[in-house]
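Quarterly update from the structural biology core.
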Amino acid sequence: MSLESPHVASDLANLRDLGGLPTPDGAVRTRMLWRSDDVSRTTPEQAARLIGDGLSLVLDLRSREEVADSGRGHLAGHGADYLSLPLTENATDPDAMRLLLSELSSKELMGQWYAAMLVRTAGSVVRGLDAIATTTGATLFHCAAGKDRTGVFAASVLSVLEVPDHEIIADYALTHAALPAILERLRAGASLALIESGELSIESPLLSASAETMAAMLACVNEEHGGVLAVLQGAGLSDDTIAVLRSRLVGQRDA
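Predicted structure, tokenized:
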């Protein structure tokens, strides 16, 4: 597999630092947790900036097919640790995407799909959390758009850090402003046919980033499974790892 993406490189459309989100003991530290769209397509310059800002671990939530299609990109040449944690399958299959489009016809159904994804892949999420706890610097986690799989993982790590649900929901909804740029980036990938046909657009629940969607996910997990943290503990997340994550990633809130 090539270390560099075969697609045209551009700056990330949906990159943000989760630092500053409040917790009971302060706030998430800055430059420790980034969420993003597909880093395999970023520029050499932006990859170097991320490393310069302390990036030491990349968690790749894309399917194996997506990784095989575009590789790891320019970050692969900088020595950051890399862990593949596929949270979905068939993400490059247009027929599978069409099936999702037909099934996920509302924000509530999208949220329930997220909840099912978390429960199904909780073991992989725990592997990612364990890796964050042991890395020496900052972590970036990403999928293709930085919305669905990345949103589920963000909800997981932020729940472990005791960020309130309403803040997790608000962070998820920030992706809405990036959707036009995300759509342009997806044109270079497997979603091109669906985008050009009009089947997949910003108006589609599958591509939207509504607060109601993340609220529905958290409500479903809370009501049916006792909360995100309970799901992760059931999949093997240890008290020691929780303590390390809170110690590493939470600091005093700025005055």
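The chain has a mean pLDDT of 88.
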